């Protein structure tokens, strides 16, 4: 089965210097076609950032996101 979406080594930092925060640090994930997936974690762990990057609503600093791969 081909993946509906794939993220490989995705990095998304915010800010610079002492105020810098890494929302996504080397995240890799694959979602199969026709399957429901829940993304869960404690507040501030990057779930919303991941969803925004996967949907193309936000950009990533490095890595790769593929839709309908």
UniProtKB/TrEMBL annotation:
Origin superkingdom: Bacteria
Residues annotated as domain ABC transporter: 25-67
Entry-linked Pfam families: ABC_tran
GO MF annotation, one: ATP hydrolysis activity
Annotated protein name in UniProt: ABC transporter family protein
Organism for this UniProt entry: Saccharothrix saharensis
InterPro entries: ABC_transporter-like_ATP-bd, P-loop_NTPase
